[in-house]
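User: Hey, quick favor. My workstation is busy. Could you predict this chain's structure for me?
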Amino acid sequence: MRTPVLALVATGLVLAGCGQNASSSSSENAAPPPPPLTPAQVKTLVATLPAPYNTGDPEAGKADFTQCAACHTTVQGGPNMTGPNLYGIFGRKAGSAPDYAYSDALKSAGWVWDAQRIDQWITNPRAVLPDTKMTFVGLPDPKARQDVIAYLKGAASPAPAG
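Assistant: No problem, here it is.
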């Protein structure tokens, strides 16, 4: 009877550390992350996107983003994982998030992330930059990409003023 209990405890300990590295461990001095945005705040942010991205459904995008969440976080102060934390991606220069080892191709891409660039990228990253480290094969459905971009706008952006 003890073996299954020990196996469960061991499994829980392994899973508790999954996706974390030494720099992502909590500390007593770390500020708590800000509260999630309200649906109204997300709606305001999505409305600032250019067409057709401003018609994206953040809830549907959240479901599609689960495949991205295996490698990326979106919360302010969240850790880099296999991929960089995406908080603040809109308006950020490609390959410039702190403390992440980007491929040379992405560091020298020279663009700034916006809805259209994210759309091109998540369609097929290796078609955009063949030497990228990103192994994601792409999201072929245009509506799913619009939804992911709407989700990212709400999940990875600061709260709108007002």
